[in-house]
Amino acid sequence: MTADRPVAQNNATTLLKWVWRSYFRAALIPLLLVEVMFIAIYLTTHYLATRENIAAVRSLATDELRRIAQREAMVIQKQLEAISRTTDLFRRQTALILRTPFEPGPEERSRYAYSPEGVYHTTRDNGGSALFYSGIVPVGPEQREKVWRTVQLDPLLRDIQQTHPLVVQLYLNTFDSLNRIYPYFEVLGQYQPRMDISSFNFFYEADAQHNPGRGAVWTDVYVDPAGQGWMVSCIAPVYRDDFLEGVVGLDITVATITDTILNLAIPWQGYGVLVSKTGTVLALPRAGEADWGLRELTIHAYTDYIRQNTFKPEEFNLDRRPAFAALRDRPEGVAPVDLNGPQLVAWATIPETGWRLLVLVREANIYAQASRLGHRLMVIGFWMIGGIILFYLIFFALLYRRARTMAGVIAEPLEAVDALVERIGQGDYEQQAPRFKVLELQKTATGLVAMGRQLGAVNQRLRLAQQEAEQARDAALEASRLKSEFLATISHELRTPLSGVLGMLALLLDTPLESRQRKYAQTARESGQLLLGVINDILDFSRIEAGRIELIRAPFPPVALIEGVADVLAPKAHEKRLNLMTFVAPQTPALVSGDEGRLRQVLLNLLGNAIKFTQRGEIVVRCEPGQTTERYVWLNFSTMDTGIGIPPAARGRLFQPFTQVDGSSTRRFGGAGLGLSICKRLVELMGGEIGVESEAGIGSTFWFRVPLDLVEREPVRPPHIREQGAPRALIVEQDARGGELLRDYLLAWGMRPVLTASANAALEALSGATDDPFEAVLVGLKLDSEEFQRLLAGLERQPSLATVPRLLLADQDEKGLDARSRRLGFAAWLTRPVHRARLFDALAGLLGGTSAPVSR
Q1: 822 versus 635: which is more confidently predicted?
Q2: Is the pLDDT of residue 597 over 50?
Q3: What is the CATH number of domain 554-715?
Q4: Is 842 exposed, middle or buried, given 0-12, 13-18 or 19+ CB atoms closer than 10 A?
Q5: Three-class SS string for 84-136?
Q6: Angle 173-179-180 (CA atoms, 0-180°, nearest 5)?
Q7: Beta partners for residue 130, in sequence order
Q8: Collapsing DSSP states into helix, strand and coil, what is residue 179?
C-alpha cells in the first residue's frame, strides 16, 4: 500500500502472518508447552534437591564448627591454666624471697651500677636476669637490699621459661619501680629513667581495686616497654600483709599466640581468632587479615621510650562491628556473619581468662561440593534446553516454509486486486477487470472496476464546484480590500472638514458668549472630538485590515514614554478626582528600540479606557522588564484601575471589533468598540501579546508585552540621594498602592522609607524617631481632607517636628498652590502623576537644605 492511499491497519495482518499464526496456535504452542513443563519440573526438582543438600551440609557444618570451637577452647584453657598456676607459684616464691635476706657474691654485686639519672641497673649478662631500678624513688641501702634479695629469683625464672615455651619473658615489678626481668637485655637503653611502673596496666590490673581475689589475672594486648612488641601478660600480686609489694608476670607475645595457640587444624580453610573479655581482638592470624580489614600487630617500632600504656586501636574491638553483636549476649554459639563475604562463625568462652575463641569459615567453602553438584545438574538442564531450542528452530523453519508456500497461493489474486484499488485511488478511474479462478475474487474485481468509473464521474463534478468556490473567495477578498480602502478614504475625507469644525468651535469659545451659548458650543466641541476619535479608530482599523500599517523602529527611553502618556491624560483623571500614578522599575533599560508611536497609541487607548470606566479610586501605569537576552528585552506594560471591572462571560469577546462589554456601556461611556481590537492588532504586529485580568466591581488590569531591541543594557538607575549614609523618609499616603510605589522609588535611591496611612500613625512615627530621626516627610493626603488638617495640627503642636522638611504631593495644579503649600510649611510640592526624575530632584533639594522647584 502507498502513503497516498492510507488504509486502517490497526488490527490488519498479512496473509503470511495469518497462516503462520494458525500453524503456531494449532501445532506448535501445545507441543512447546509440554516441553516447557518437563523442563520446569526438572529445574524445580534440581533446585529443591540442591537447597536440601545445602541445608544438610549447613547443619553438619554448624555442629562441626561448634565442636571445633569448644574443643580448641578447652585446649587453650589447659595451656592458660598451666601458665596461671606457674604465675601463682612465681608469686608465692617471690613473696618468700622478699622476706629472706641474701648477700650475693662479689661477682654478682659487680654487675650493678648507677646511671647519671639515678637509675640502678645491671651492666652485663651472666646468664641471669636483668634489673632496672628507675630512680623515681632514690635507690639507697634499703633499696639495694631488696635488689640482693631478688637475685634469688634467677634459677626460678630460668626454670619457668624453659618449662613453658609460650612464655617469652618473666618479671617482677615492685611498687617503687624495681623491675627484675628474664631473659637479660640492656635495660638502660630500653626503659625511661624515673619511669613509674605502677602506672602501667601490667601492674595496676593486679592491685586490690582491679583484683580483689589476689589470684592470677590476664591483661589485654599492650605494647611491651621491654621491647618484645605486642603481648598479653598473666600477672599476680605479691603482698606483704595487706601492702602490695609488687606484681609478677609471665609474657606471651601476640606472634606466639598466632603461631602456636591459633595454629589450629580447621576444615574448609577456616581460621581462629582470639578475643579478650572486653571485645578486643587479641590475636588475628594472617589468614584472617583480609577478611577483617586489619593487619595484626605483632612487632612495634621502638623509636622512643614507652612512657604510658599503649593498647590496640579501636578498630580491633568487636563493639565496632555490628555483625558480631550475638557474641556479646551468649558465651558460645554459631551465627552467620558478613565479613568480606558470607561466613559462619562459631565461638566458645575460655573460663580461665574470659577470652573467646572464634572459628570462622567461608560459607562458599562449606557448600563447595554441594554447589559443584548443583552446577553439574544445571549444566545438564541447559543442554536439554539447548537441544529443545535447536529442535524447535529446525521445526519452525520447516513450518514457516510451508506457510509461505500456502500464503503465496492465496496472496497473488489479492495483490492483483490491491494494485487495481491503488490505481483507482491515484486517479486512474478507467480499469479493466483481471481474470481469477476463484469466483468470489472475480466478482470483487468486477465491482471495483464499476466503482472506479463512478468515482471518476463524481470527482469531475467536485473539481468544477471547487473552481467556482475559489473564484467566489477571490471576489470576496477583493471586496474586503476595496471596503478597507473605501473606509480609509472616507475617514480621511471626514476628518478634514471635522477638524475645521472643531477649530472654528475653539475660536468661537475664545469669544465673549452668553452662558447658554458657551454651553452649546462646548457640547458641540465635545461631540465633535468624540466623532473624531471614532473616525480615527475606523481609519486605523481599516489600515490594519488593508495591511497598510508599517512599524518604525527607533531608539526611545521607556521612562519618557510612560510618563508622557500619563501627562497627556492627567487632566481627564484630575477632572474625575482619580489618583493617577506611574511606575517604571529601576532595572528597566535606559534605551530600547521599537515603534514608540504605536506603543504610545496602545498605552493611550488602555489608559483612556481605564479613566473612562473608573469613577473613583486610582489608576497605575507600570513598565517592568521581563526576559532579557543579549539582543532584546521583553517589556511588560500594564494599566491597573479600580473601575467597574469585566464579568468573566464578556472577556472572550473583549478584543473583537465593534464590541463592548454590553450595550449599556456604549450608551453610558460612548465609543465604537474598536479601541481594544486595534490594540490587539498592533501588539501582535510588534510580536507581542495582550490580555486582561479583571473582577466585576473591583477593577481591571490590562497588560501587554512586546520584544524590543536593546540599545543600552544598563537600567535607568538614578544615583543615590547621598553618596554616604541612607537618610530616613516618612511617607504619609492613604492610597496603599501609591505609597508602595513611592517606597520602591526611595529604596532604589538608597533611602530608608517608612510608609504610614494616617496622620496619627505619621505623628507617632515622627515622635518615636528620636534616636534615628526622619530627614524628609512626603505627604500624599488630599489638601481638603480631615487627615491632612490633623497632620498639620499635630506638627504645629510639636516644634521639634515642624523643622523636618516636607514635600507635598498634590492631585493637580491649581492657582495659588505654590504660595499655599509654603504657607502650610511645605518646602516643595509636586503634582500627580509624579515623574521619577522630578521626585528625585525635589528630594535632593530637601535633603540638601534648599527648596526644590515647583514641578508639574
Answers
A1: 635
A2: yes
A3: 3.30.565.10
A4: buried
A5: HHHHHHHHHHHHHHHCCCCCCCHHHHCCEEECCCCCEEECCCCCCCEEEECCC
A6: 105
A7: 181
A8: strand
pLDDT surpasses 80 at 778: yes
Determine contact, residues 818/854, Cβ cutoff 8 Å: yes
Lowest-confidence region among 16-30, 106-120, 407-421, 662-676: 662-676
Residue ranges in 710-835 assigned as alpha helix (H) = 736-748, 759-767, 786-797, 799-802, 817-823
pTM for the complete prediction? Answer: 0.42
* Spacing of C-alpha 720 from chain mean position: 38
Distance CA 132, CA 195 (A): 10
Query: Which are the contacts of 506, defined by CB distance < 8 A and separation ≥ 6?
Result: 525
H or E element in which residue 828 lies? strand 828-831
Q: What is the pLDDT of residue 5?
A: 45
Residue 384: per-residue pLDDT: 74
C-beta contacts of 688-691 below 8 A and 24+ residues apart: 688/634, 690/655
d(CA 458, CA 460): 5
Select the more confidently predicted residue: 281 or 705. Answer: 705
Distance CA 699, CA 704 (A): 17
Task: Work out the angle at residue 219's Cα, subtended by the Cα atoms of residues 218 and 220, and round it to the nearest 5 degrees.
Answer: 130
Per-residue confidence (pLDDT) for residue 852, from 0 to 100: 41
Cβ atoms of 299 and 229 closer than 8 Å = yes
Identify whether the C-beta of residue 174 lies closer than 8 Å to the C-beta of residue 149.
no
Residue type (1 letter), 87 = T
Nearby residues of 852 by Cβ (< 8 Å), 6 or more positions away: 807, 827, 828, 841, 842, 843, 844, 845, 846
* pLDDT exceeds cutoff 90 at 623: yes
735 close to 757: Cβ distance less than 8 angstroms = no
* pLDDT digits 0-9 by tens, 814-841: 666 778 888 888 888 888 888 888 888 8
Domain extents in the chain: 427-539, 554-715, 728-848
Task: Taking residues 114-127, report their average pLDDT.
Answer: 92
Indicate the pLDDT class of residue 88, thresholds 50, 70 and 90.
very high
User: Cα separation of 828 and 839, whole Å?
Assistant: 10
Q: Give the residues across from 274 on adjacent strands.
A: 283, 357
Query: Which 8-state DSSP code applies to residue 259?
Result: I
Instruction: Verify cis geometry, omega within 30 degrees of 0, for the bond prior to 183.
Output: yes
Q: Is the pLDDT of residue 482 over 90?
A: no
Question: What is the identity of the amino acid at 406?
Answer: M
Instruction: Report yes or no: 567 and 836 within 8 Å, Cβ to Cβ.
Output: no
CATH topology for 728-848 is Rossmann fold (3.40.50)
Question: pLDDT value at position 7?
Answer: 44
| Residue pointed to by grid coordinates 469659545 | 509
Please give the Cα distance from 680 to 824 (Å, whole number).
Answer: 48
Measured between alpha carbons, how far is 755 from 732 in angstroms, rounded to an integer? 6
Can you tell me the distance from the alpha carbon of 589 to that of 623, in angstroms, rounded to the nearest whole number? 11
Helices (H) and strands (E) in the chain, counts: 24, 26
Strands 806-810 and 776-779: parallel
Q: Would the pLDDT of 851 be above 60?
A: no
Place of cell 580448641: 72
Q: How far, in Å, CA of 342 to CA of 364, rounded?
A: 8
What the block records as the C-alpha cell of 285 is 592470624
Instruction: Please provide the DSSP assignment of 295-359 as one string.
Output: --------SS---S--B--GGGBGGG-GGGHHHHH-SSEEEEEESSSEEEEEEEE-TTT--EEEE
Determine which helix (DSSP H) or strand (DSSP E) holds 842, and give its type and residue range: helix 836-848
Query: In terms of residues, how long is the chain?
Result: 856
Report in angstroms the alpha-carbon separations of 323 from 281, 315, 788. Answer: 15, 14, 82
Cα end-to-end span (Å), the chain? 79
What distance lies between CA 153 and its chain's CA centroid? 74
- Run of H or E residues at 530: helix 515-546
